[in-house]
Amino acid sequence: MSKGGASIPDEEWERFLKEAGAGGAGAPEEPSARARMVAQRLREEPDGPPEGWRTYTPARRRRGKGWAALGLAAAVAVVVVAVGPWGIADWFDGDGTSATPLAAESERPTGPPAREAADRPPTLDEPFRGSPAARWSDGPAGIHLPEARATGWMSRAEVARALEKTQDFLVASALDPAVLRGERPDKAMALINPHQSDVRDFLKKAFRTPDRENDPLLLFSRFRSADVRPAGDVVKTRGRVTFQEGERGAVEVSTDVTYVYPVVRAEGGDDEVARTIVRREVVMSWDDPAKIVIEPGTFSLVSYKVDTTNGGCDTHTGYLSPAFLAERAATRPDGGAEVDPYDRSTSMEERMREGDDEGCGTASRS
């Protein structure tokens, strides 16, 4: 029992991890509606003695019934590539295969990557050809970590360890090959404070019965292995991690990373490569255990947002469901806003605020 409030027994948390199955059945289909869920972060109660993280109060979404928590806000934006063969030349910019790799992204760029006319689709040998991601780094190397400094309740060395564990979470949630093929992200979930009861309940529902409000894709990248397989063993990434002192002296770490996943169909001899692009902003709080009930080496979730291109729109199966050329040819854009999935010059909040609430947007390139 942790001081300041009833803690969640380790046995219960372990039981949850074992019970959380990979939910969702049936092949995903491309729908016509754009999922957009936005919850505003609520003010925390005044300082007091240590407490279990934390008391939660329902909040209203812009559309439909939603939820939020004190200290926790969630948002999702889904943008589907809905371009047929009539627009294939517009998906790609310069080849990029022989270009100099980009330096790590230490700050927000001032604009989107340059565009060049090219009609060279990706191949198994060059799955990132024609994409800005061809110049991005592979896996964790594309996620810029800042230099540690003493902040809040943590020393410089402790902040450095928190940043390393933050990167561990990003790898375990979005780059782990087992998780990408649909397995349960146990390593990633083990880094989340088990005393966040609403987060635990969210994860439990998300893996058992995923739906609009309980979607594991908010935090994890997963494909159904029966539908697709990786086109090679590289995921391209670009993003950065920042930190500052948060509430009650915590170290609040913000992550903003774009992942590019090339895939092919799981069955048959088709070598067509499709790319799914996922951008996530995850904010986590490395809390002072003297003020917040938390397990050592874990963080409390503060907020998370995701923007997905060619991963399915309003499918809520718990899996990313990329469309291939024939499917894109059969589905023309439905009037949603055009979005450049490689543009990291605006925050997720700005992008979501400027977008439409309804309809699947059109990605300007893949």
Q: Descriptors for this entry?
A:
two-stranded parallel ribbon; 7 helices; 13 strands; alpha/beta; 366 residues; single chain; eleven-stranded mixed β-sheet; disordered N terminus
Could you walk me through the main structural features you see in this protein, from its secondary elements to its overall organization?
This protein has 366 residues and is α/β, with parallel strands linked by helices. The protein has one domain (10-363). The chain has seven helices and 13 strands. The chain has helices at residues 10-19, 156-174, 177-180, 186-189, 197-208, 325-330, 348-354, and strands at 36-38, 51-52, 73-80, 137-138, 143-144, 228-230, 236-245, 251-265, 274-286, 292-293, 300-309, 338-339, 361-363. The strands form two sheets. Strands 1, 3, 4, 5, 6, 7, 8, 9, 11, 12 and 13 form an eleven-stranded mixed beta sheet that branches. The protein has a two-stranded parallel sheet with strand order 2-10. Helix 7 (348-354) links the parallel strand 12 (338-339) and strand 13. The longest helix has 19 residues, at 156-174. It is globular and about 55 Å long. It starts with 9 loop residues before the first helix and ends with a strand.
Q: Helical element count?
A: 7
Question: Number of domains in the coordinates?
Answer: 1
Rg over C-alpha atoms, rounded to the nearest angstrom: 20 Å
Mean pLDDT: 76
Specify the structural class: alpha/beta
**3D shape:** globular
Helix fraction, binned, reads 10-25%
Strand content: 15-25%
